[in-house]
Amino acid sequence: MPRIMLCGDIVWAHEEVKQLFTGLADVVRMDSPNRTDFLAGLRPGGKYEGTVGIYRHNTSADHIGVFDKQIVSALAATGTVKWIAHNGAGYDQIDVLECAAKGISVSNTPGAVDDATATTALYLILSCLRHFSKAERSLHAGTWKTPLSSGDTHDLTGRTLGVLGLGGIGLRLAHLVHAFPMRVIYYSRHKVVDAPEWCEYISSMEELCKQSDVLSVHVPLREETVHLVGEKQIRVMKRGSVIVNTARGKVIDEEAVIRALEDGHLSSVGLDVFPNEPSVNPRLLEFPQNALLPHMGTENQDSQRHMEVRALTNLRDFLREGKGKDLVPEMRSKL
Predict the structure, then answer these.
(1) How far apart, in whole angstroms, are the C-alpha atoms of residue 275 and residue 265?
(2) 48 phi and psi, to 5 degrees?
(3) Order of strands across the sheet with 199-201?
(4) Which of 94, 103, 128, 327 is most buried by a 10 A CB count?
(5) Which residues contact 240 (CB under 8 A, 6 or more apart)?
(6) CA 209 to each of CA 129, 150, 192, 227, 230: distance values in angstroms, whole numbers, following the listed order
(7) How far is CA 197 from CA 165, 183, 191, 205, in A?
(8) What is the average pLDDT across 73-99?
């Protein structure tokens, strides 16, 4: 039977692994303590020989690093590995262009993360506009409402949320804030044809920033999206506006954000992601009105189980049908 490798431990979906692969493939766990051992295991006669597909979780990077050109080349050199089923919506830890060049397909888990990430963004919006995070810290410190001022806070109702990237997460957030209601506008590379009529398409990112009271970022990290939100975009936003980021830290120019916080152009930021995780720029901690989370977007068992099952199902479908359903966008035109 072919072999599949679990590159990153399964936490919740142990029974599903048995159901999906019993009689279809042998399952081998990646147990290499470092990259050298992992690369050796891929060579002829190595412990991973015969692997045709890989389930990958970002935690594997703690031992073998990201799937860069070196690892992708080693996978391709086996002649057998043809599919990487990544657990996560974001897949910036995989060199997908190198995978495409080497004939290895990559899938991710869109949809499975939508609720969890959107509710994280909603919390950050609420906390930034109402200073709930600051208030909770004040209570814990025994200072009750002393450091708080109602003059610095706002209701969500009637304010404008700008969604940068109306994919699954952005659309789910749009539905959540529409309940208040907030006015929802969005900018994406293309107008979303099935977006609700109350979700207004804005034809340029600059205009999106100009109109937004809160800008929520939902774009993948690619070379062209590094610092997509920078000095220019921030400065066309309204004075006292808010930026929320649950995508990837490097999509926003952190230094530009800090400058805007220092001079009051931004009233606060809500961040679940940072450029150099787990390190956090200590200057962001100097603004108590900020709402900062340690990448909690999908940190709940329900979403994590869904993500594991969706990634594993992509791998199962590859074994049965030759391809999974969630091929990443960069590769869809190649099939």
Answers:
(1) 22
(2) -105, 10
(3) 199-201, 183-187, 160-164, 214-217, 241-245, 266-271, 291-292
(4) 128
(5) 264, 265, 266, 267
(6) 17, 25, 19, 15, 11
(7) 17, 12, 12, 20
(8) 96
Tokens 């060199």 correspond to 95
Q: Token match 């700008």: residue? A: 162
- CA angle, 232 then 235 then 237, to 5°: 115
Residues ≥6 apart with Cβ < 8 Å to 98: 68, 69, 72, 73
> Residue 306: is its pLDDT beyond 60?
yes
Q: How many residues does this entry show for the chain?
A: 335
pLDDT at 333: 59
With a CB cutoff of 8 Å and minimum separation 6, the contacts of 268 are 128, 131, 242, 261, 287, 289, 290, 291
Q: Are 94 and 87 in contact (CB under 8 A)?
A: no
The C-alpha atoms of residue 99 and residue 71 are separated, in whole angstroms, by 10
For the segment 154-206, what is each residue's pLDDT rounded down to a tens digit? Answer: 999 999 999 999 999 999 999 999 999 999 999 999 999 999 999 999 999 99
The residue type found at 237 is M
Distance CA 324, CA 327 (A): 7
Residues 6+ apart with CB under 8 A from 40: 46
* Closest of 185, 295, 171, 170 to residue 220, by C-alpha: 170
**Cα 94 from Cα 103, distance rounded (Å):** 14
Task: Provide mean pLDDT across the span 17-22.
Answer: 97
Alpha-carbon gap, residue 163 to 215, rounded angstroms: 6
Tell me what percent of the chain is helix, strand and coil, each rounded to the nearest 5.
40, 15, 45
Q: Which residues are annotated as catalytic? A: 248, 277, 295
Distance, in Å, from the CA atom of 178 to the CA atom of 142, rounded to the nearest integer, reads 35
3-state secondary structure of 286: helix
Reported as a pLDDT band with limits 50, 70 and 90, residue 334 is very low
pLDDT (mean) for 231-250? 98
Residue that has been written with the tokens 């048995």 in this structure: 18
- Give the single-character DSSP code of 51: E
Structure tokens at 14: 């142990």
